[in-house]
């Protein structure tokens, strides 16, 4: 799949603000600073479709981008930012949950994990959430340029194990610096969009 066109459509908090559309969706989620904006920009060949590392943890919005006029990328708010209050954490959970409940056009969730670190409690909860609602998941281990090959292989195993990844869910690595893994991720998303 090649992404030729990408366009910001809207930011939403509540479901009545989501686009009134039945086109399929792929959602992206992960802790803040994991490289989510950088991944979306790389996949869409855009430098600034999504803002990279502004104030971490400050965006509590679900952002919809129309891709190739065919489907949406949905950028979910990042989590795990240490300085947010309990109330903010609750509102984050509610925003995510409202989106995940019953989203028929949602074909896959891309969960981003920094390849250098063991998945956090929040990452484990998020993966559980995704599986609870029954969505297929692609785990992307980000910032692969930061590790040598041996350590990367080792950490991929560790991430799989820590998340207790089910057999159907794939894990791919990615670097926004050298674009390692970009084609495989696009192929993976393409097949999710095309299987009926
Ligand atoms: N070395 C390296 N740094 C990255 C990579 N992806 C993102 N970053 C850096 O990590 C920080 C957070 O990136 P961003 O995309 O804004 O993360 P987000 O908060 O998850 O949207 C920024 O300083 C990026 O330049 C990567 O693949 N390799
Ligand atoms: Mg971001």
Short description:
With 196 residues, the protein is α/β, with parallel strands linked by helices.
Structure description:
The structure is a single chain. It is built from 5 helices and 7 strands, in the order ββαββαβαβαβα. The protein has 196 residues and is α/β, with parallel strands linked by helices. The mean pLDDT is 92. The structure holds guanosine-5'-diphosphate (GDP) and magnesium ion.
What keyword list fits this structure?
22% strand; seven-stranded mixed β-sheet; globular; alpha/beta; 7 strands; binds guanosine-5'-diphosphate; 196 residues; binds magnesium ion
List the helices and strands and how they pair.
Layout: E1 6-12, E2 25-30, H1 36-43, E3 62-67, E4 71-75, H2 86-100, E5 106-114, H3 121-132, E6 137-142, H4 149-163, E7 170-173, H5 182-194
Parallel strand pairs: 2-4, 2-5, 5-6, 6-7
Antiparallel strand pairs: 1-3, 3-4
């Amino acid at each position: 799949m090649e992404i030729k066109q990408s366009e910001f459509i809207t930011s939403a908090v509540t479901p009545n603000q989501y686009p009134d559309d039945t086109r399929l969706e792929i959602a992206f989620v992960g802790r803040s600073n994991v490289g989510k904006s950088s991944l979306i920009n790389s996949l869409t060949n855009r430098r600034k479709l999504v803002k990279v590392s502004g104030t971490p943890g400050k965006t509590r919005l679900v952002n919809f981008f129309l891709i190739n006029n065919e489907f949406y990328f949905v950028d979910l708010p990042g989590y795990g930012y240490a300085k947010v209050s309990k109330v903010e954490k609750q509102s984050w959970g509610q925003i995510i949950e409202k989106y995940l409940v019953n989203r028929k056009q949602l074909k896959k969730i891309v969960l981003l994990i920094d390849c250098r670190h063991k998945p956090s409690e929040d990452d484990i909860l998020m993966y559980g959430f995704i599986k609870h609602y029954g969505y297929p998941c692609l785990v992307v281990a980000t910032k692969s340029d930061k590790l040598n090959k041996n350590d990367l292989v080792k950490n991929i195993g560790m991430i799989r194990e820590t998340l207790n990844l089910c057999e159907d869910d794939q894990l791919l690595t990615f670097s926004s610096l050298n674009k390692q893994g970009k084609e495989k991720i696009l192929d993976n998303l393409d097949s999710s969009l095309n299987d009926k």
